[in-house]
Amino acid sequence: MSTVKERRYINAALDNYREMLDTIPDEQFTETPPGGGWSYAEVYSHILQATLGSSIALERCTHGSCPPTKDGVTWAGRLLLLLGVFPPVKVKIPDTVADKMVAGKISKEDAKNLIIKCRKRVDATAPLIDASSAASRYKHPRLGMLNARQWFRFIRIHLEHHLKQLERIKNKLSQA
Description:
By secondary structure, the chain is mainly alpha-helical.
């Protein structure tokens, strides 16, 4: 998929996150759904932190400031990037990521500000992707060594994946 199309999908996903914020009742934003799992606030915290972190990795690739490597994408990474979706199974965040990026119960205002930050990062890094070297790669904890184009695709896939999670939370809370 082209960078232009990926960017369009990323912007659409960020628009969906922003629009959804206005439909979530304030008292439910930090509520843990019945049966456990993350609250809306924790999903927003996770996805927006991950998007910012991924955009930093992407930017390193575009500037060629990654350590040289011959390593590439893992088998799971190839599959994810090829299919463009996460597998339909629950996957636990690797401990190395969970320790660095705690999904906290942020406020709706924090979420709005993080969406703006993410959009600015996407706008700043997207124009650099096409001129970047495919050999400049930065490590993803589970998917292996990704180049700028692959990081951009991952951002889109990850954003869309967690939109589905927000729908599951909505369904759980409406049935409670």
